[in-house]
Amino acid sequence: MRTASVKKIIGPSLIHLFFWAFTLASLIPFILIFMVSISSEDSILQKGYSLFPKEISFAAYQFLFNDFSEIAKAYGVTILTTLIGTVVSLLMTALFAYPLSRPDLPLRRTLSFYIFFTMLFGGGMVPWYMTYVNMFDLKNTIFAMIIPNLLLSAFNVLLMRSFFSSTIPESVVESATIDGASEIRIFFSIVLPLSLPIMATIGLFNTLSYWNDWYNCMLFIDKPELYNIQYLMTKTLTNIQYLLMKSGSSAQVGELLAKMPRETVRMALAIVGIAPLLFAYPFFQKYYISGITSGAVKG
């Protein structure tokens, strides 16, 4: 009996210890990036990256935030596009997926196959670009960073459709229909409140995609006041690399680079770009796992 009791205690404890160690190991890259970003450039060049900075310096952040108004505008654009894009995209995905989950929808299998087909083949970059520039005239507008990503992935639609099919009881929908509720009322009053796990999961996917998007900004935006934070950071890093290539041909540029924190700036760029997302995860974590597993039960 004592042996069985000891096994019951030691077994779960070892499992918990393993996952705690795995979690801490996963945090090491983020800790390393932050520590390098607050290290002095000389210590990095001389002794390499370290979890324990030899010399604390905030020169990288001072360099990035030298013109704070530019950073603030970029953050404002990113937050605006992320909020609007995530909410609208999530609503469109749900409105698309819910009818596909209803067994009485005509051509249900054909529409599902059409969505799946878009995961395998695309129209190409040139037609895609011309459609948004010539037809919708999105060049140098805030909508250029929202509309192209509204239906981010057919996978999201299929995942949400599977969740609706496996989780929303058909009897609940039938009862609401008998009571005289319209399809819109059923969707917003019954289906969505019962679908918080999958909504939070797809919402997290959309948030990450909109926040990390710099490609659309590069293609459609020429005005600096409309740059988002990711493209601004990418542009800053590109400018540093350009100066590095030109440093041999100009003594003035070489002197400037000697005072510029290069390696630490790279890490500071990562911190500036990813830090706000760390605050979003706690809101989605509660529903994330259940949304993934429930959506994968039934195809």
TrEMBL record:
Pfam families hit by this protein: BPD_transp_1
Chain ranges passing through the membrane: 17-38, 74-99, 111-130, 142-164, 184-205, 265-284
Is Transport among this UniProt entry's keywords? yes
Q: Which domain of life is it from?
A: Bacteria
The chain positions of domain ABC transmembrane type-1 read: 75-284
**What's any GO biological process attached to this entry?**
transmembrane transport
Record keywords: Cell membrane, Membrane, Transmembrane, Transmembrane helix, Transport
**Its membrane topology, per UniProt?**
Multi-pass membrane protein
Indicate where this protein is primarily found: membrane
One Gene Ontology cellular component annotation?
Answer: plasma membrane
Q: Which CDD domains match?
A: TM_PBP2 (cd06261)
Record has Metal-binding as a keyword: no
Q: Where in the cell is it found?
A: Cell membrane
Q: What family is reported?
A: Belongs to the binding-protein-dependent transport system permease family.
The protein here is known as: Sugar ABC transporter permease
Q: Which organism is it from?
A: Paenibacillus rhizosphaerae
